[in-house]
Amino acid sequence: MAKMKKSLLLADIIDQSDVDLILSVELIENQIRETELHRHAFGQLVGSLEGLLSVQTESGWWVVPATHTVWIPPNTLHGAKSHGPFRGWSVYLDPKRSQLLDSSPKTFQTTPLLKELVHRAASWSDDTSQAVKSRLSEVLFDEIVNLPETLFGLLQPGLPSLKKMTDGLLSNLADNRSLEEWARSIGLSSRTLARRFNEQTGLGFSEWRQRARVLSAIEMLADNVPVTNIAFTLGYENVSAFIAMFRRVMGVTPGQYIQRHNKESIS
Q1: Which regions of the chain does DSSP assign to beta strands (E)?
Q2: Do residues 60 and 167 both lie within one domain?
Q3: How crowded is residue 37: how many other Cβ atoms within 10 Å of its Cβ?
């Protein structure tokens, strides 16, 4: 494992599946970056130390605040965008190890131990013994397996009719149409739509739309969009209603969230 500085998410990382290793790479970015959709044979864990990262795949959308990580399974088509200055890291896992983790993307809280292990692995010198690397790799992998999951992701449905519906919602999160209205627009009963939506996304329709709004709000806060503008962009009649929703989901107001996020980015 060697220290490297590459483009965000390392689209040009070594792409092979016959090497049994964990490759740790520290990323340092000082500007907004965006990568095109790409895939690689390694599983990838991406962590944010400062700033916010958004990751898009064919199956969904994840945001990664400071002190959080996102898991991207092998051969998953994905792209990423940072919101403001971003500093973070990646750990690449060989396919064999990746099979022991989730087969779909997930977000996790970064533990202090994981952060230190990544920095240690990324700063190894060329003469570090393989035995030392192997021992630390095992500890690093054990820590990854036991990371606490967070809910900073949103799955898209696979059914074309439902995908068209959610694509429409994501392009206009101010759309307040009810489940019944959406059901009529795609020719389903509301009961059938509710059942299929839950089966496809793991969430009820209202919860899915609320999470989409929260994730979008987090991105806009990172881009320094005023709270008033965010509220109206997301379809709320007034700022108070938006703040109440955000506090109910996140446990803090938007202003408190930004303060905490900035503090975590510094630490």
Answers
A1: 22-28, 34-38, 43-57, 60-64, 68-72, 78-93, 106-109, 149-150, 153-155
A2: no
A3: 12
Q: How far apart are CA 223 and CA 220, in angstroms?
A: 5
Task: Please give the tally of structural domains in the chain.
Answer: 2
Q: Cα–Cα distance between 21 and 238 in angstroms, integer?
A: 52
pLDDT single digits (tens) 98-155? 999 999 999 999 999 999 988 888 777 777 787 887 888 889 999 999 999 999 999 9
In this predicted model, what pLDDT tens digit does every residue of 14-52 receive, in sequence order?
444 444 456 656 666 666 778 899 998 889 999 999 999
Among 131, 150, 169, the domain-final residue is 150
Domain boundary among 123, 150, 177: 150
Q: What is the full DSSP assignment across 133-144?
A: HHHHHHHHHHHH
Domain hosting 227: range is: 157-266
Residue 212 DSSP label: H
Per-residue CA distances from 192 to 60, 151, 183, 203 (Å): 22, 26, 8, 14
The backbone torsions φ and ψ at residue 4, rounded to the nearest 5 degrees and listed phi first, read -140, 155
Burial of 9 (0-12, 13-18, 19+ CB in 10 A): buried
The SS3 of residue 188 is: coil
CATH number of the domain to which 189 belongs = 1.10.10.60
134 and 167 together in one domain: no
The answer to whether residue 8 is domain-embedded is no
Q: State whether 116 and 174 are in the same domain.
A: no
